[in-house]
Amino acid sequence: MIKILDARKKQMYEKGKGDFDLxxxxxxxxxxxSQRACVFCGSRVVLYPVAxxxxxxxxPVGCAxxxxxxxxxxxxxxxxxxxxxxxxxxEQEVIYGGEKKLYAALTELIAAYKPKAAFVYATCIIxxxxxxxxxxxxxxxxxxGIPVIPVHSEGFRGSKKDGYKAACEALxxxxxxxxxxxxPKQSINILGDFNLAGETWIIKEYYRQMGVEVVSCITGDGxxxxxxxxxxxxxxxxxxxxxxxxxAKMMEDTYGIPFKRVSYFGIEDTADALYTVARYFDDPLxxxxxxxxxxxxxxxxxxxxxxxxxxxxxxxxxIYVGGAFKAFSLVxxxxxxxxxxxxxxxxxxxxxxxxxxxxICDEGTIIVDDTNPLELSKFMLEKDVDLLIGGVKERPxxxxxxxxxxxxxxxxxxxxxxxxxxxxxCQEVYSSIMSPVWQFSPARxxxxxxxxxxxxxxxxxxxxxxxxxxxHPQAGTRDAANEGDMMNANWNKHIIDKEIExxxxxxxxxxxxx
Length: 514
Ligand code: SF4
Known about the structure:
single chain, alpha/beta, Rossmann fold, 6-stranded mixed sheet, 4-stranded parallel sheet, 47% helix, disordered C terminus, binds iron/sulfur cluster
């Protein structure tokens, strides 16, 4: 039996049970093993996609383990962001200070890699020993002629959300440096997409087709020069509101650029995002282009989404993500697949976010703020979910419980934004839920999952099944007791895959003929 800590009870709510008064935006409870990361981690995820900048971590080498290899972000050009540098502070610097080492590392790295700018991240130990990072950065900036920006991201200063704020403040020091390069009136900045798997390119292509110029992406596939002139854009379009609203507000206050919060996940939210931008510029041609784009894309993907739905209808999902905005889109996207959201939570949601989540979720849905692995496991078992959508820290929870998993965080390798991303999402959810492997998970062996596999297809097409068994001897298992079940499960997946592949080929052929 899993017990909820008394001090955590106010941060969870089951829709339909009592008044809604969810506590949120609190520091994590000691001992509850929050899934939130440290301040440095928050600033790193926001800043590191700036691909032509140097990223130097001032602290012990362990903090620098948090590299591009763990959290990827694609670049269409330079890839300096893939290298992780650390001042590797040791006992001597902890006693006598690390400023000399920081100065030496910065000058050596700038000479070797010739970056367009440098970000220097202060970690916990810097907050304790009191190095004057600001002064060292200012000195190197004067000597090198490039912006050298301190990031005040000492890990213990708060949570990951405070790291987002530190990153926004660092980025703000870059903005406004380029006053010369002209920017057209119908122009935007994309804030809060990090191009983890090529999403920024999908979104930019939509705006290109609509006739809107993207001045800068902050920070997916980011470039220092583009960020320096981003203050000339007419509108900021903020996707990851948790991380980027602070920057959007600073740009609004200083440069008068309004901002709109959007999401590019799912069909409605992607369409809404594009229409929001089109309506802002109030240009008939732009609106027509947007309508055309949305119609074509929805016509293209919707039949396939419906097809996936036939296999996924009535499944149940748990969602636990960083920002609540993503959770909104996921609830809606899952609904297209006939999947009910049984549990939904975020690390950084605020009162307004959770109120909206309550509005869009079904009765009985558990809404949870800043949860931990034990709570999540308890709710997943109670609700008997088929799928968990989360990030790298949630993945083992799903696998240990024998539940399908969809990575919707910084570690993903599949673009999930835009209309194309919706199809990828469906494919990912389908592949994971329908995988035959779950029936052999010890945690699920006694559950009703086993029965969900028996769709009767073996009996409906015995000849094809026998042929499949002959052609795929590896699809079974050496365990004689499970041989038939495993083969049947693989067979089920095989025919479903074939059906979907057949439909896709047919549609591609039609497109080719047109
Ligand atoms: S909590 Fe401190 S020591 Fe740990 S990774 Fe973050 S900055 Fe480094």
